[in-house]
Tetratricopeptide repeat protein (Frateuria flava), 418 residues
Amino acid sequence: MKLWRWLLLLIVVAALAAFGWHWVAEDPGYVLVRLRGWRVETTVVVALAIVVLAWALLAGLWRLARWPFGAMSRRHRRVSRQRLGGGLVALMEGRHGEAERDLERAARLDELRGPALVAAAEAASRRGEPARALETLNRAGQVAPQAARVVRARVLRRDGKPAEALALLGPEADSGSLTPGGWHELALAALAAGEPRRALAALEPLQKSGALGTQRYAALETQVLVAALLAAPDGQALNALWSQLPKGQRRAPAVIDAYARRAAAFGLALPAMDELESALRREWSPQLAETWGTLEGDDLDTRLRRAEAWLDAHPNDPGLLLALGRMCVRQQLWGKARTYLERSLAIAPSPGAWEAMGDACIGQGDIPLAQRCYRNALALTRGDATLDLPRDGRLSHPDTRSLAVEERDEHGIPRLRK
């Protein structure tokens, strides 16, 4: 198809050239130039040819005269681009001082001034020099205002001034003209400033922009939602916020856990329990099972039997075992509690399990062993080593291999143990 177009174009050009030549040949025109006694006579075609040749000659001479200066300019651009590339590589490699020096030199070229100064400010911030970074951003704001504003907010947040970063990004956020990086910084600054509601408003535009990957956005969304739920001032505000969240946002285990704990703190144990049980029916979560066991309520016997039924399907779940142990402690079933708690500790030791074990030991009057359990809970919280419990006493470490069962996913396919 393209070949036929070129042939058609050539035919049209040839026809126009033949017609033009015939038209000029009939009357080539007459040009007379008189200057100080000089007299030049020629046709229009020759005059046009002379003008074109003269223009080409003058253009060639002008390029020849500018060549030395152009060579210097080309060398300056080439060196500046090399410095920009080297500075960015040094920034990624952690050589921040070298990166800042190369980027400052690259900024001498006007076309690279904006990105070079913004990257130099980032290098200064990573070196722990926020004042120098803000000074560099003042110059970068003249050529790349939006990028400089986002980086300025990041520098302020890193410097422990999230409120200033939030105020910097606020006007553009209110007008909806904030860049994706700006929305991300707004969410982080709002979280650091203790204003999760502002961070909550940044989630929708940030999701639409697609600036963050699926996993990274999900992690940020969970962090923002948890902070917003935990900051609810009363039960009414908590339920209002919970009802406004889309269903997709109310399915994350950490978000459900935050709602349940906050609702229980306001005395709303029944709604919290309903949400936890609904979530556990959809998908099992050790975190939610543990939280479910901490809720207060009068139907402790019924809940204990329900948890023991769950244990048949999840015998190696440390969160469920901890929940069972805590409920047995509240019912003063000390021996049963210690059985569940020692299994939980054998599978995955946690401060909560050690604390509950200490409560069970106190219930049985074993004060020295309870003290050791409490010390282990504190040591595990600090990341220190824990003390082994005596194996020759009533408490021993069970062989958890006998508790191994086949686990299957929602499609019935056996799942490998982690």
Summary: The chain has a mean pLDDT of 85. DSSP finds 20 helices and four strands in the chain. The longest helix spans residues 44-93. The first strand starts at residue 31 and ends at 35.
